[in-house]
Amino acid sequence: MSDLLERLRGRGWRVTAQRRVVAEVLDGDHVHLTADEVLERATARLPEISRATVYNTLGELVSLGEVVEVATDGRAKRYDPNAHRPHQHLVCSGCGIIRDVHPAGDPLADLPDAERFGFAVSAAEVTYRGICPDCART
User: Fold this and answer.
1) Which of 17, 48, 53, 57 could pair with 22 as two cysteines, CB 3.0-4.6 Å apart?
2) In 3D, which of 128, 81, 85, 123 has the Cα closest to residue 106?
3) What pLDDT band is residue 111 in, cutting at 50, 70 and 90?
4) Do residues 42 and 50 lie in contact, with contact meaning Cβ atoms separated by under 8 Å?
5) Between vectors from CA 57 to CA 13 and to CA 28, what angle results, nearest 5°?
6) Are strands 68-70 and 78-80 parallel, antiparallel or unpaired?
7) Residue 1 — pLDDT band, cuts 50, 70, 90?
């Protein structure tokens, strides 16, 4: 069973065939699929699944905090199932591929007090940008 599906079952989430397929499609490391990519992979496994069901399920997973919406550079939103594993993202400026990265250090601690402007900072999102090896070859 997928890690995401296990977490959802632990929360008492009603697992229908359609929801199960969406959760299974999202399972794995470095998974950052668009809604259309989730739909494409889900219909390969369960042809009768509808676009509305996939989009509604993604929205519900985001609302539950089990999946994170990742938006980069005006591209289509991507869905990251690693919501419970602290990480940052590395994004290719060419093709848009996203990889999870785990840099040493704490981005919250790296923000000096003088730059907090009185905010009680509770989270930080760091995105590293560059060119992936495939785009660098072209």
Assistant:
1) 57
2) 123
3) confident
4) no
5) 80
6) antiparallel
7) low
pLDDT tens figures, 51-110: 999 999 999 999 999 999 988 777 789 999 888 878 889 999 998 889 989 888 788 888
CB 94 within 8 A of CB 131: yes
Burial of 106 (0-12, 13-18, 19+ CB in 10 A): exposed
pLDDT at 24: 93
- List CB contacts of 34: < 8 A, sequence separation 6 or more: 76, 77, 78, 79
Kindly tell me the burial class for residue 128, based on how many C-beta atoms sit within 10 Å of its own C-beta (0-12, 13-18, 19 or more).
Answer: exposed
Dmax (CA) for the chain in angstroms is 55
